[in-house]
Every structure is written in C-alpha cells, then in structure tokens.
Amino acid sequence: MTTSPGLILNEDDSHFYFSRTEKEMTLEGLQALVDQYAGTQVTHLFFNPNCQRTSYRSRVWEPIWEHGKQNPPEDDGGKRWCANARLLDERGLDPYAIWTARAREKGISPWISMRMNDVHSVGEPAHYIHSSFWAAHPELRRGPKIQSSWADIAFDYGQPAVRDYHMKLIREFFDRYDFDGLELDWMRFGYHFRPGHEAAGNRLLTEFIREVRTLADAHAKRRGHPIKIGVRVPSRPRTAEALGLDPVPWAKAGLIDQVVVTPFWATCEFDMPIEHWKLLLAGTGVTLAAGLEICLRPTPKVWPKYADNITTTAEMVFAAAAAMFDRGADQIYLFNYMDSQTTVDDPADYPKILHHAGALDTLAGQVRRHIVTYPDTLPDGDPPGYVLPANTKENQPVRFRLHIGAKPAAGTAQVVLGLGEEGLMDAAALTVKVNDDACTPSAVPAPKAIHSIARQTAVFDIPWDALCGQYNLVEVMGMQEKPHQIVWVEIRIAPH
Prior knowledge:
Layout: E1 7-11, H1 15-19, H2 27-35, E2 42-47, H3 76-90, H4 95-105, E3 109-115, H5 132-136, H6 160-176, E4 181-185, H7 198-223, E5 228-234, H8 237-242, H9 248-252, E6 258-262, H10 274-281, E7 287-293, E8 295-296, E9 310-311, H11 314-326, E10 331-335, H12 349-356, H13 360-363, E11 368-371, E12 390-391, E13 398-403, E14 411-419, E15 430-434, E16 437-441, E17 456-462, E18 471-478, E19 485-495
Parallel strand pairs: 1-2, 1-10, 2-3, 3-4, 4-5, 5-6, 6-7, 7-10
Antiparallel strand pairs: 8-9, 11-19, 12-19, 13-18, 14-17, 14-19, 15-16, 15-18, 16-17
C-alpha cells in the first residue's frame, strides 16, 4: 500500500458541540468544520462519535444528552455539548453523515474513529458522560480489586460481554455511515485487560478485529469502495505487546490497513522508534502514522507543584514531524489539534501546522525545536521511562540523546537548557558539549514556550559541523560541588 505524506486530524466526540453556538447547529455550520481543512495538508479527517455515550442518537448506545440515572452536566461546556447534540438530532441533522460526505466533496478522506474504552471522569461514578451499562456492571471492569487509577475502572475486553457490547456500536457505524475507514482507538485509554492477562487478550483482539475486517469487506461491496481498518496503539512495540495491543500479528494476518503509534495524552513524544515499527511491519503493506499529542511535559515530575502542561508550538510540531518522517513514518497524525479550545495556545500556529507539517519538503526551512520528553504509556511494573529531572555532578556529565531527523544543509543550532529550583541557577558554571564538541554561551534568546518547571534558562551555540543527522548526544556538566538540576533539554535548529 502506498500513501502520500500528509496529515491525519482527529476531531473528537465533544469539541464541535463545546465550541459552537446554537446558531451554528445547521447544515452550513457542520460543513464549515470540514471546509477549513480544504487546501491544507490534511488528507484525512477522523471523526470520533463516541466516548461511553454517542454524540448522535444511537440505536444501540445511549446518546450524550439522555442522562437516565446519571447526573446532568453542571459545567457550561457539558451543558452545551448535550444541548447542541440534541438540537442537531431534533433538526434531523446527523453530523457524522454530513461530515463524511462533505469531506469527500473537499477531497479529504473521511474515517470514523471509535474510542474503544473511554474512561473520562470515572472518578465521579454518576457523571453524565458514563453509560448505564458501565455503571451497572462493575464486574466487567479490568481492575475491580485495584481501582487506583482511571484505567483500573475501564472495561475488561477479556470478557465476552464487553466485546459484544462494543461490537454492537461498530456494526451500527458500518450500517449507518459511508466512510473510507474505521479506526479502533485502543489508546482511549490504553489498558484493556486484567493484569497478567494481556497476552491472551491480544489473541482475543485478533479475533475481534477479524470480525471487524469481515464487516468492512462486506460493507465495502455494498458501498462500492474499499473500507480500511486502522488501530491506534502505544508508541513502543514492547509496550504495545505487553498491553495486549500488538498490531503486528493483525497486520501480518491482513486484518488492518493502518497503524498509528502514539503517546496517550500527557506529552508529545519526540523519540518514538518509528524505524523499529517499520521493520516489524515490513511486507504487510500497512500504513504507519506517527501520532503527535498537543500537551508537552519534559517529565511527569511536573506535578503537583507547577502548571501541569504547556501545548506544543508550530516549531515543536515541525521538529517531531521532521524526525518521524526521517525515521520512516508515512503520515503524521494530529490528536487534540482541533480548531479551538483543545488546540495550540497561539492561534497563528494552527494554520502553519496545517500547511507545513505534512511533508518533508514543506518542513524544510522551518525552525524546529527538538525536546526531551518521555513515553507516557508503559506496562504496569515497568521502570519509568523519563530522564528528567537530572542532577549534574562535579566533573561528571549527564547525557541526553535527541533525534533531529535529517540535518539541514546549512543553519544554526543551539542547546536550550532549563534549570530547576532544586539546584544552582548560575548557568555560567555549566559546560555543554554536543557529540563531544564544546558549545559556547549563545546570544540567541531562549525560545518560548518552556515549561514553568524551568526556573532559569540557558542557551548554548552548537558548532554546525558538530551537529549530526538522527541522534545527537548532549552532555551537560557542572563544575561545582553543588549540582544543577536540569529539567528541560532541547536542540533548536534554524535552517538557512
């Protein structure tokens, strides 16, 4: 399967209803959501109709506005979501039918993306977002004896009743909507089996997806065009396998057409091993997309003292996309990059991303910020995957590896460091090397935004000849007995 570069953009189950007024609950208002992406590098729009409830009147699941025994929403956003979704239904307007048709008119491939195990707000059992099925069946949850996190209270796909319940909605999607592909989003919320049962779970999901493939093929004949199947899975092969979400056997069996590898939510991950996925999926014809999240944290240690996240900027997205394409990604997948509210902080960055992040030729010449972050999804019991904060020791460097993709032919580059309050703030006492070449303090100001965990920033010029394509080793060393606490590390590149 050959795929042109481009951007896949996920429109979630609530954003449109949250962000629009009652006056925009019209055919024209619905079509306008799609129209803004025409003429950009967005080649695919993935429309998500569900959490535990649907944002349309389903025959098999409860719609978001019918609360039953659940509490009605108290927040303005939730009230608007329920009211606007219900208003569209009363007006006979099905947003997902309208959006898929409009996307095709505009030359954009429409998909439906199904959240397979959404557990937003499960800490509030009577929250309006929960289904009565979930509320009534605690025995169907993956961690009934643990319940220390949201994921513990998710459905257990090891149980036939859970698989049957979700297959009902999949069947309805195929019956009701004419889409080019169905994505099974296993990253909402990423944990689907009781501890220790993940390997058996992957085999169960193989049969589950086989049934979905059979449905897709049957409906493709009815619709008169192919219908693809995609999955969203964790960013690292070992993690996906350990969580029962290994797409490799699904791909080798011909059950899926696309794999999106991605973090969950906490941070955009700049160092996903795309080349390893390419090797594992070689010969399957499956499209491989790199998923970028909107949040950015250098470490999970930002909680609870500091503002917990910043959003990515266009320069950060350009860096991640350039590295992912260089490592073998076929496409870039944007999750939580919508046109308002859940989006980048600087509105001017949004069109830049849509017009430049989807191909290497349009990324050339763009300033890029490659940042040390971490994988936010790991199997229970695995060691943490973060390297920050890191403390310098006298005459002993701390080291960081950053993948920058292909090195531009010419330009300038800097190391940007952020110092935390648990160490020295005097950056003059630091020495910095990149690939064993010394860097000098720079006159270039530190870029924005940098997470607030960094109380002081320092910038060092990298000798251009020292910079390498792909991985670069940054070494930071203190020259005093008291350490510096390093909480932010990035390589900024400005091509000429």
